[in-house]
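Course assignment 3, question 2. Fill in each field.
Student: A.L.
Task: Predict the tertiary structure for the chain below.
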Amino acid sequence: MKKVSDESSKARILDAATALFAQKGFDGTSIREICKNAGVNLCMISYYWGGKKELYQGIIENLLEKQLEYSKEFLDLSKKPEEMSIKECFELLMKIADKFVDFFYKNISSDLIVLLLKEQQRPDFIVKSPVLDYMRSVVARILNKNVNDRVVIFKTLFLLSQINSPRILPAFSLRLLGQEDFCKEDISIIKDNIKLYIKTVIGGNIKEEKND
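Answer field:
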């Protein structure tokens, strides 16, 4: 078992690397600078990741691991959406969206958002997230379409944008409010907006199922 101090060093490296990569990019950031900002020995990068490229990928993997562990508290990924009713999937999607808001606004730093936005522009960047894939499967069941249908893909994308847009566009949210962070009332408004989106744009098939 790793020592607590080791885990603390790993967390500091991830935080320092995320901030520097977001500010300076991959090529503009050195391993020495990351270790200096994290307050750790240079060899710690090799110990945990092997090199700068692996550390960069490790930031994304760490986020996905946290997301997966968090989701296990309220989501059973072994339960197939196609074996559930549309109504059950609709209620589950509401729950997933609600929990995603809590995760996104508590666990994603501004530096990590910048890093993720930059990564999205790379043609070779593909997110392998079991949780996001599962959510898309739930949307597909509600819409009674294939998981790879373009309607499913875009409606899932727009749902995710409802969740993260206030964080991604702080000039149109926090700065207009004169705040540095989101308060409980803000989170409540965001959740209400997401629920409205799900009911209006995704939930239309519930009545159809009842009438069949």
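Instructor remarks: The chain has a mean pLDDT of 90. The two ends are 56 Å apart (CA to CA).
Grade: pending
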